[in-house]
Amino acid sequence: MELTVRNMSAGYNRNEILHGISLEIKSGEKVFVGGANGSGKTTLLRVLSGIIPHTGDVLIGGRDVSSMKRKDVAKLIALMPQTSDMYFPYSVRETVLLGTYASSGNSFFGSDSEAVQYADKCMEDCGISELKERHLDELSGGQLQRVLLARTFAQKSPFLFLDEPGNNLDIKYRAELCDKLTDWASGKTGDSDNTLVAVFHDLEQAKRCCTRAVMLKEGRIVFDGGISEALTPEMLLKVYDFDIGTYSKI
Amino acid sequence: MTKKGTGLKIVISAVLCLFILVLAIRQGSVYITLKDLFGIIGGHITGKGTPGEIEPMMDSIFWTIRMPRAIMAFLVGGALSISGACMQALLQNPLASSYTLGVSSGASLGAALVLILEISVPVLAGFMLPFAGFVFGLLTVIAALVLASAVDRSVSNTTVVLIGMILSLFVNGMMNLLSTLNSDHSKQLVLWMMGSFSARGWKHCAILFPVCIIGFVFLFAMSRKMDIMSFGDLQAQAMGVDAKKTKIIAILICSLLTGVSVAFTGVIGFVDLAAPHIVRKIFGPSHKLVIPMSFIYGGAFMALCDLISRTLLSPREIPVGAVTALLGAPFFAYVFFASRRKR
After folding, report:
1. Nearest to A70 among B237, B280, B288 (CB)
2. Stronger pLDDT, A215 or B182, i.e. the higher one
3. To the nearest whole number, what is the mean pLDDT of chain B?
4. E strand or H helix at A78, and its extent?
5. Within a 13 Å sphere around the CA of B326, how many CA atoms are in the beta-carbon half?
6. Average pLDDT of the residues in B96-115
């Protein structure tokens, strides 16, 4: 299944953030989306998930994402947003189970047994099994991030869009996150043809998790190619206006 | 919470609420034994008539006055509470309710227009005031939603709450102006706005009951969506819930529940705010439990408040809205803040 973007522009209210984006992501790819703050990375993930209206085409498996039902989109694309609202203190288990809403056959009374088993496996994979009866307001930032990651995995969608998934994670869990994402994308966790599109600010993590980079600057793609070519001093200067040579001298 | 623990809490709550409902029917200037009460109820349900040893006056007091009044109070309390629970989750605002979106101010304006202009439609007979209140309440909410959609395509929670409050204040202003210019009707209007279950009979229950059933079934069916929506619109969309559509449908159902309740009883505040929060403290945040338990708790609380309103200063009646606030506010503050201190 492919994700095709053709001449897409989008933004909030009358403020256009992304301008004329064209992109093709094939099944099984691991794509890093990079760029400075405000370059449009988060907006791109939201448009690809069909959450923000756009002009141009955004097609998943040949279907226009904005004309699909939300539940059908969620079966194909799981988006983990950068920030999370938490209004009521659900338990960790309840929260992860909510991730099965789209994939579960019985979404009215709760998750079916297959979805419950899968959610348990996601909690185990994200190292939060022992926290499952705890409430969200009792967790640290890193623990909460792992809960949200498990909930995103529980959606069981072949496309995984992660917006800064390493936020709040300590060095051990950041390393484990990369292993987990790599295993997931390569089908080692039991699924196949999984596609990862992730925004990272930690470029080392991006390099470990992804093979392709799409670099944005002021809402336009300025680079699309291999991750190694994207993380050169010249490219960092071009994309982030950041001179790594000067920085390392300091 | 274990399933067994939850089950026990549900049983205790149901028994307690039933006890309050029976108490609300029995207590008052005339007292009845449980045997006679069940005799009256059984006689009417089976169609055999009241047992001979019970005086016809007792039958009249309990079957035609007390029972419909207590049941009406229970239904109104339940309807207001589930709509409060739903709005708090959807709008992610602990103070949200259908009142926030202008139901009560719209309904009050409708009632004021009927009283002042002395409008009467023969078909509606004695239902003109509640009908106007309901229609105006619903129109105000629809206007709030249309305006919110016009200024913000995503119909964000902040926009909905702000537009609702602006519209409420505006409509309240119109209502106050009307009331001041027509001082003859002021007292009647003020009384209506303070809320009362006085003179509410089976014919009122017959309208409210199906509305409650329909509203309850719809909101209960949406309970998982409400769980997801309480994580915010963005996460809800990401998990497969159409946030805008869900919000509009739920707001209209809540407005129907609140509009019909307000129309029959006047404006009774607080229960829609307090009951869902108290239920969440006891049963947790899952709406599969919050919706039915809010109905039971809100209903029982309202029946109890109505009992107090008619017996405390008997033969005078205190407006039930004043009782809900006076009794509910300190209890709610205790439940809410005491459990916070424990953390």
Report:
1. B237
2. A215
3. 85
4. strand A77-80
5. 11
6. 81
Tell me which of B234, B242, B247, B282 to substitute to probe the interface with A (most A C-beta atoms closer than 10 Å): B234
3-state secondary structure of A135: strand
Name the token pair of B156: 């964000």
Residues 6+ apart with CB under 8 A from B228: A98, A101, B235, B236, B239, B241
pLDDT, residue A12, reads 86
Written as one letter, the residue type at B145 is L
Cα–Cα nearest to B84, from B227, B250, B248, B198: B250
Question: Ranked by mean pLDDT, which of A28-32, A181-185, B99-103 comes out on top?
Answer: A28-32
A108–B221 CB contact, under 8 Å: yes
Residue A106 predicted with pLDDT over 60: no
Most distant CA atoms of chain B, gap in Å? 67
d(C-alpha A156, C-alpha A116), whole Å:
12
User: pLDDT tens for residues B13-41?
Assistant: 999 999 999 999 988 888 888 888 888 88
pLDDT at A192: 61
Cβ distance B79 to B260 under 8 Å? Answer: yes
Q: How far apart are the first and last CA of chain B?
A: 17
Cβ distance A94 to B231 less than 8 Å, yes or no, reads no
The pLDDT, as a whole number, for residue A105 is: 62
The torsion angles phi and psi of B304, rounded to 5 degrees, stand at: -65, -45
Query: Is residue A75 very low, low, confident or very high in pLDDT (cuts 50, 70, 90)?
Result: very high
Distance CA A73, CA A80 (A): 14
What is the predicted ipTM?
Answer: 0.90
Counts of helices then strands in chain A (DSSP H, E):
10, 10
| Residue located via tokens 């991730």 | A99
Residue B146's pLDDT is 87
Residue A123 corresponds to which amino acid?
A: M
| A153, A125 Cβ separation under 8 angstroms | yes
Nearest to A29 by CA among A47, A48, A3, A9: A3
Which residues of A are less than 8 Å from B239 in CB distance?
A: 74, 98-99, 101-102, 151, 155
Q: Which of A167, A164, A162 is nearest to A142 (CA)?
A: A167
- A51 contacts in B (CB within 8 Å)? 234, 237-238
Average pLDDT over residues A160-188: 81
CB of B258 closer than 8 Å to CB of B250: no
Chain A and chain B share a number of CB contacts under 8 A equal to: 75
**Among the partner residues B227, B231, B240, nearest to A84 by beta-carbon distance:** B231
Among the listed residues B89, B90, B87, the one whose alpha carbon sits nearest the alpha carbon of residue B101: B87
Global pTM reads: 0.88
Q: Which of B130, B144, B264, B136 is nearest to B196 (CA)?
A: B264
Closest-CA distance of chain B to residue A156, Å:
11
Distance of residue A248 Cα from the nearest chain B Cα, in angstroms:
39
Tens digit of each residue's pLDDT (9 = 90 or more) over B39-79:
888 888 887 777 777 788 888 888 888 999 999 999 999 99
Q: How confident is the model at residue A108, as a pLDDT?
A: 62
| 8 A C-beta contact, residue B147 and residue B116 | no
Q: Which of B251, B232, B238, B204 is CA-nearest to residue B99?
A: B251
